[in-house]
Amino acid sequence: MSTEQPLAIPDFLYGTAWKEDRTPALTELALRMGFRGIDTANQRRHYFEAGVGQGLVAAYRAGVVARRDLFLQTKFTYQSGQDRRLPYDPAAALSVQVAQSMSSSLEHLGTDYVDCYVLHGPSSSYDWTDADVQAWEGMIKERDAGRTRHLGVSNVSLRHLEQMALAHSEAPAFVQNRCFARLGWDRDIRLFCRERKIIYQGFSLLTANAEVLHHPLVAGLAARASATPAQVVFRFSRAVGMLPMTGTSDAEHMKQDLASHDLALSPDAVQAIESLVG
Ligand SMILES: NC(=O)c1ccc[n+]([C@@H]2O[C@H](COP(=O)([O-])OP(=O)(O)OC[C@H]3O[C@@H](n4cnc5c(N)ncnc54)[C@H](OP(=O)(O)O)[C@@H]3O)[C@@H](O)[C@H]2O)c1
After folding, report:
1. pLDDT, tens digit, for every residue of 136-149?
2. Are 176 and 144 in contact (CB under 8 A)?
3. Alpha-carbon gap, residue 44 to 181, rounded angstroms
4. Residue 175: pLDDT band by 50, 70, 90 thresholds?
5. Percent residues over pLDDT 70 in the chain
6. What is the distance in A from the centroid of ligand 1 to the CA of 52?
7. 177 Cα nearest atom in ligand 1
């Protein structure tokens, strides 16, 4: 693993969920279009991680990118979130499951390290449980062994994060959550993250927020900037400190999503969008 170079965190993550047989081609396309951050999971039910690896190989061979240019992120998913295609022995201790899942991910992705390893979700929707403590400690071991540079958690509440902070000396570097505008764009969690220098990754920014995309304020901002409402939402997300994710399967949308970076959005507009529906 090459730890000597500083980690460049891209300003957009390309999500690979729900792409099945199209995963290799769409991963390669996303890299060709300019994405440098890839999110996946060793959860065959929703992701085809080995297909992501095939897309990476194709991009490497074509000289589009090299491994060192990329931010590769994958996840450990509990058995309750999986179908029968498990990447570990379910009878093994959780820390062993974490290590087995990681070995399988590295094989799928054709690499000897990932940039971030994410706990896909806590074992309970309410508390940070003993199972989570074991899984997280296993993930720390993976990080210490050099198989991931960073650790993250996903699908967490503020209560989870507060309990996690009490249970462990090590905080996550990333939090990945579905971001609902009607919850102030996950305001409480974003604030928690900002105070602790944790990077907040937002997903479903478009699909969870149709009311924002159709709102006259956003439509007006988009029209004035000769952009689309989707681009305004992605630009907004960055302005409030998020690392946005997109799972588009469309080359034009890939281009637009990346180009949202350059959109002008005034502080007043950012504030107005932030309090639009929640
Ligand atoms: N941690 C978790 O539990 C979890 C859960 C869900 C997702 N994720 C991650 O997040 C990634 C993204 O998921 P998501 O829920 O945000 O997105 P998504 O479900 O992949 O869908 C994005 C939607 O937005 C549309 N879109 C994207 N760019 C657009 C644009 N510029 N204009 C118009 N429409 C646009 C896409 O349509 P087109 O395809 O037609 O562009 C698609 O319908 C996933 O692939 C996965 O990696 C993680």
Report:
1. 999 999 999 999 99
2. no
3. 29
4. very high
5. 97
6. 16
7. 1
Q: Which long-range contacts (CB under 8 A, 24 or more apart) does 20-23 make?
A: 20/48, 20/51, 21/48, 21/51, 22/249, 23/47, 23/48, 23/51, 23/52, 23/54, 23/55
Picking from 180, 131, 139, the residue whose alpha carbon sits closest to that of residue 157 is 180
Ligand 1 pocket: which of 109, 157, 250, 258 to mutate (most atoms within 8 A of CB): 250
Distance (Å) of CA 121 to CA 35, 145, 153, 176: 25, 23, 7, 9
pTM: 0.97
Report the pocket of ligand 1 as residue ranges, CB < 6 Å. 15-17, 39, 120, 154-155, 176, 203-207, 228, 230, 245-250, 253, 256-257
Closest atom of ligand 1 relative to the 252 alpha carbon: 31
H-assigned helices in 204-275 = 210-213, 216-224, 229-239, 251-259, 267-274
Give residue for tokens 């589009």. Answer: 64
Give the distance (Å) from ligand 1 centre to CA of residue 17.
8
Residue 240 and residue 254: Cα distance in Å, rounded? 21
Cα 1 to ligand 1 centre (Å): 30
- What's the full length of the chain, in residues? 278
Question: Which residue's alpha carbon is at the smallest distance from atom 15 of ligand 1?
Answer: 204
Q: At what angle do helices 229-239 and 216-224 cross, to 10 degrees?
A: 90
Under a CB-based contact definition with an 8 Å cutoff, are residues 261 and 10 in contact? no
Q: Decide: residue 34, CB within 10 A, 0-12 exposed, 13-18 middle, 19+ buried.
A: middle
Please state the atom number of ligand 1 nearest to the C-alpha of residue 234. 31
**Token pair for 263:** 């959109």
Q: Which atom of ligand 1 is nearest to the CA of 205?
A: 16
Please give the average per-residue pLDDT across 121-146, as a whole number. 98
pLDDT of amino acid 96: 98
What average pLDDT does this structure show over 122-133?
A: 98
